[in-house]
Design a protein that fits this description.
With 320 residues, the protein is α/β, with parallel strands linked by helices. Helix content is 42%, strand content 15%. The protein has helices at 4-9, 26-34, 49-61, 80-87, 101-109, 121-130, 152-160, 176-185, 194-197, 206-214, 225-230, 246-251, 255-261, 264-276, 299-306, 309-316; strands at residues 15-17, 39-42, 66-71, 92-96, 113-118, 134-138, 144-146, 167-170, 189-192, 220-223, 239-243.
């Protein structure tokens, strides 16, 4: 089995693309790994075996190292997703949002190292007990699904004192300054979603990328109402951070009322809004760092913009 610390230490830019269902496919994974980071493919709760085979195949054909991120809570609904993902030969497997134990051996037997995203100290202790090879501290400012209770920096400080296994920092890291900050604290790499969701190789529709670029840091909301409306059975502890829109303005403060009053028309409207890219209703999952993404870029340009992290680390040495 490869060694996670060595894999991360080998990166020219210590940035791992967060596995983002609907955004991080094989093309993005290949581009990031070719550019000196580590690419990941996101496998969501509504993914099909054919989609996963195609996206992981694209990543594998690039000849670069890549990773795959799966959602533990939804794997029992479609266990074949794990088999297909592992057949493609990922170097890293992320088992997040649920108990990784049932899938750990299969990932290890396939030759992958395993990480889990954690959003609280308790989740970190549990994942370490389960036997993951590294942790991703994922703060509440992050985009997409996760815990909404602790932000990145407090959780990172806490978890780094818990373990000698590699810890990656996710949630809100979008610039060379942010990367330098988490590396200086002791993270082995950053786990970056939102900036890559908006980049050229992302599977996001152009309208969604433009919306992320236009948004400011205070224009996101952490909520379960998109999942309630679409009747997705995400465990209640996992909400998702998305761009605020007319739908969240109406419902984010009243998830219980939405649950009780939900009818099939609204579910159909939200699903249609996603097809039509009607962003007043559809979710655009993105974190607070949307406000740090201000132009269209390729994955290589996103990585290049992280590169001055070394200057910030050097500047901080005046304190040593
Ligand atoms: C559009 C989008 C989709 C996401 N989908 C997944 C997913 O499928 N699996 C997963 O483990 N995390 C997913 N996440 C969460 C990321 O792994 C990560 O926690 C987050 O992007 C980090 O915060 P940042 O967006 O501020 O960089 C997603 C995030 C975004 C923005």
């Amino acid at each position: 089995m490869p060694d996670l610390a060595a894999i991360l230490a080998d990166l020219r830019v210590p940035v791992v693309v967060a596995p983002m269902a609907g955004a991080a496919g094989g093309r993005l994974a290949a581009a990031v790994s070719a550019g000196g980071g580590l690419g990941m493919v996101g496998v969501g709760n509504v993914a099909t075996v054919d989609q996963v085979r195609a996206e992981c195949g694209t990543a594998a054909e690039s000849g670069q190292r890549f990773g795959i991120g799966l959602m533990c809570w939804s794997l029992p609904q479609n266990p074949a997703l794990l088999d297909v993902a592992l057949e493609s030969g990922p170097t890293v497997v992320s088992l997040s949002f649920g108990d990784p134990r049932p899938y750990l051996d299969a990932a290890h037997d396939a030759g992958a190292v395993v990480v889990a995203q954690v959003g609280t100290r308790t989740e970190a202790v549990d994942a370490l007990d389960a036997g993951v090879d590294g942790l991703v501290v994922r703060g509440s400012e992050g985009g997409g699904h996760g815990r909404g209770v602790v932000s990145t920096l407090p959780l990172l400080q806490q978890v780094l004192d818990l373990t000698d296994r590699p810890v990656l920092a996710g949630g809100g890291v979008a610039t060379a300054r942010g990367l330098a900050a988490v590396l200086a604290a002791g993270a082995s790499a950053a786990w970056v979603g939102t900036p890559f969701a908006a980049c050229a190789e992302s599977l996001f529709r152009p309208e969604l990328k433009d919306a992320v670029i236009a948004a400011d840091t205070d224009q996101t909301v952490y909520t379960r109402v998109f999942d309630i409306a679409q009747r997705f059975d995400w465990p209640e502890i996992y909400g998702g951070r998305a761009l605020a829109n007319a739908f969240t303005d109406r419902w984010a403060a009243h998830p219980d009322v939405l649950s009780e009053s939900l009818d099939d028309d609204l579910t159909a409207q939200i699903k249609q809004a996603r097809v039509d890219a009607d962003l007043s209703l559809a979710p655009v999952y993105a974190g607070e760092s949307a406000g740090l993404v201000d132009r269209a870029r390729t994955a290589a340009e996103v990585l290049a913009d992280f590169e001055p992290f070394r200057d910030h680390l050097r500047a901080a040495q005046r304190w040593t």
